[in-house]
Design a protein that fits this description.
The chain has about 160 residues and is an all-alpha fold. It is built from five helices and no strands. The N and C termini lie far apart (about 70 Å). Keywords: Membrane, Transmembrane, Transmembrane helix. This is Adenylate cyclase. It comes from Antrihabitans spumae.
């Protein structure tokens, strides 16, 4: 019974998932599908990460209340502006890299050896870009809050 169900699911999703489409689609359509999936997952994971950081900084980590009035400019304007800009820059930057590096799929031709290597190393490059964006956010948030009250910087005690 379970085996028959697995075979029906496999027949309906020959690539293992309905999200990946079917093998009969052109490689250009598959590339767009993968690009949307990757971009969507990156945006969602970064939104979840941002929410976790906001919860940690505002509720969990002991120290001054960063939701207080003196921190309002940093907490409610500067940090959210950085997050919005980082999302826009990150999405545009990684999408441009994806389009440039996966151009062979758009052109519906087999990739060269160099293009294969670039496609296989793309997850690493996307990870580095995400890391840079998070480091930028840590710097903006830490410096902004630290300029108002140095005790908001973890590890700094008066």
């Amino acid at each position: 019974m379970l085996r028959q169900r697995h075979q029906r699911v496999r027949a309906a999703a020959p690539l293992g998932s309905t999200l990946l489409g079917s093998p009969s689609e052109s490689s250009g359509i598959q590339r767009v599908r993968v690009q949307l999936l990757v971009t969507g997952l990156l945006v969602v994971t970064n939104l979840v990460g941002s929410a976790i950081v906001i919860a940690l900084v505002s509720v969990v980590i002991p120290g001054p209340n960063v939701l207080a009035g003196e921190f309002a400019l940093v907490t409610f304007v500067i940090v959210p502006s950085y997050i919005a800009c980082a999302f826009i820059i990150g999405v545009v930057w990684t999408t441009r890299i994806g389009i440039r590096e996966l151009n062979w799929a758009i052109e519906d031709r087999p990739p060269t050896r160099s293009e294969q290597v670039k496609a296989l190393t793309m997850p690493w490059r996307l990870t580095v870009i995400q890391l840079l964006m998070w480091i930028g956010g840590a710097i903006v948030g830490t410096v902004g809050l630290g300029l108002i009250d140095v005790s908001t910087i973890p590890g700094v005690y008066q």
